[in-house]
Structure formats: structure tokens, C-alpha cells
Amino acid sequence: MNAQTPIRSDTFLATEASVAAAPRSRLRRARPFLALGALAAAVAGGGWWWQVGRFDVSSDNAYLAGDIAPLGSRIEGDVAELLVADNQAVSAGQPLIRLEDQDWRARRDGTAAALAEAEAALAALDAQAAQQRAAIAAAEAALGQAEAERVRAVAGSTRSATLAEKGYGSRERAENGVADRGKAEAALAAAEANLSAARASLPVLEAQGQAALARRDGASAALALAENQLSYTVVRAPFDGVVGNRSAQVGQHVRPGQTLIAVAPPPARQWVVANFKETQLARMRPGQPARVVLDVSGEELTGRVETLSPATGSLFSLLPPENATGNFTRIVQRVPVRIALDRPEKVPALRPGLSAVATVDTRDDPTAPRGPIGAAAAAIGLAR
């Protein structure tokens, strides 16, 4: 058998050392590049924080809000029919609940009859007033005729008396002329009295007409009120939305002001209320851009700061704090900020009350680049 050649230990150690030295050599050659990359990353990150990050103000105390309309009955009655189901989408003016309307229809018909009676009475008085004006015109004509007859009788009496004095006419004829004159004057006085009486009756009829007109207007107002009350037997949606919180049941007796159902607004009529700390409001202004991340889907929406509350949220609470007491504890207050969303109708999952995280860009120039590269380039430009 051939004898095995022994491997020298010093040769093995040299080989092992050369193998271990190769990675270290490559690492030494890569160190400058790693340091340069770390430096670039630090510069980019620092530039982004200096130009963008430090101006982002964020709060997870934010939620979606909307004008939810709790609808109730404006009259007393029994629920006759429920026209919608829970969580059903409705449009503005759509009937939601109908109450029994027999009694209200009867009241409407009674006021309509009273209005018709008042209008008939007013028409009758108008006709009487017109008739009285015609009577006044006839009395005025009769007065003119009586005046003409008196003038004729006076002239005839004077002529008959003159002829009788000269012997050309008979005494009887003269006496008849005097009698005719007396009758003509009496007829004139009677015509004047009739005219005065006719004229005096007209204001009475006109006053009665005004009273009848007032009764007609009152009956018309009562009919309008009855029509309104009849329309209140149907509860309608005030705007497009989704119904919920339905508490009405068929046959239930309801009273005015009792809440029966609620209508929540669609996504297009919702916004975000973010409660920022008072230490975050120094640079916040209306119009600044905002980003909102919804907890329900993780989707990010854009928007703008619309308004800031005139007071902290604690002052609008049921029991506002009284800082003058001896057990005062200083805490950071929060101020509600309303954020209007851009095109919220594209997110059907929006519901009032859902949680969100809101971030506001408080930079002086919100249109400046937000990315790390752009921010780093801006920082380098400022450094130069």
C-alpha cells in the first residue's frame, strides 16, 4: 500500500488565513461606499425632516362628522305605515312614515267650508254695496229732476201771479201755480233726503264688507294651517341620505317633538373633525392641505383645513372646567378643527363617527415638494 503524504499544519493555517482575509478585504473596500450611502440617507432624511417633517401636525383624535337629522312628528297621531326599512338609502322629500290622517282631513274640510261661507258673505256684501251705489246714483238723478221741476214751478207761479195782477189771468190759475211751486219744493226736499240716506248707508255696507274680508282672510289662514297639519301626517326625508335609528312602530301613538327616525348624510356631505393639541396650533391656518387616513379601510384622503373652533372642546362640554377651584390640574387642551374632504363621494365606506388620523401640512408653501429627494435638494439649495 502507498503511504499517505502528511499535510503540513503551517500550510493549512496559511490557507485558512487567506480565505478569512478575503471578505475583510472586500469589506474594507466597501466601507467608503457604505459611509457615503449612510451620509446621503442622513442628508436626505434630515433635509426631509427640516423641510417637511417638522411642519406635519398629526392627531389620531379625529373622526368623521355629518349633519344627522333626527326626524319627529309635528302633530299628534298614530303611526299608520312605515315606508322605509332600516339603513335604506332615501332621497330628499321621500316619504318615510305616515300617520293616521282622518281627523286632520276632517279639520281641513271644515276650515274649507268656513272659507267658502266667508267668501259667499263677502260677495253678498259686495253686491249690496254695488246696489247701494246704484241707488245713490238714482237718488242723485231724482234730485236733479226735482230741482228742475222746482225751477219750472217757480217760474210758472211767478208768471201766473203777474198775469192775475194785470187782469190777464184768473186767480185760480195763480193759486194753482203757487201750489205747484210748493209741491216742487217739497219734492226737492224729499229727493235731497233720499240722497242723504242712500249716501249714509254706503259706509255701513263698506264697513261690513271689511269685516267680511277679515273673516275671509282668517278662514283662509285657518285652511292653510289645516293643510299644513295634514301634510305633517307624512314624515319626509330632508335631504339625500340613509335612514337609521328607527324607533317608530305601526300603531304607536306619537306626540309633537317625539323622535321617530334619523337620516344620516351621504359621503358628499361629511367632513372630518380633528382635535389637535393647543401646542400644535401655532402655525395652523384655514386653507392648509391635510391628509386623512381612515381606520375603516386604511385609505388616505386629501382635504383642507376649513375652520378652527372658537374655543376648546372642553368649554363646549356638558360640564365645562372651572379653573378657579383649588384642585386645578394643568392639562393640554384640544381644539376641534374642521377639515373638508376632497371628493369624499368616491369613498362609499364613509360613515359619521368613524375614527381617522388627520395630518395637516403647516408649511408656508404647501405646494413645495414633499418627497425626500425634493426636500433634500431644497435643503441643499438653502445651504448654498
Automatic annotation (TrEMBL):
Residues 271-358 form the p-hydroxybenzoic acid efflux pump subunit AaeA-like beta-barrel domain. Residues 115-149, 181-208 form a coiled coil. Keywords: Coiled coil, Membrane, Transmembrane, Transmembrane helix. Residues 69-263 form the Multidrug resistance protein MdtA-like barrel-sandwich hybrid domain. SUPFAM superfamilies: HlyD-like secretion proteins. The chain crosses the membrane at residues 33-50. This is HlyD family secretion protein. It comes from Craurococcus roseus.
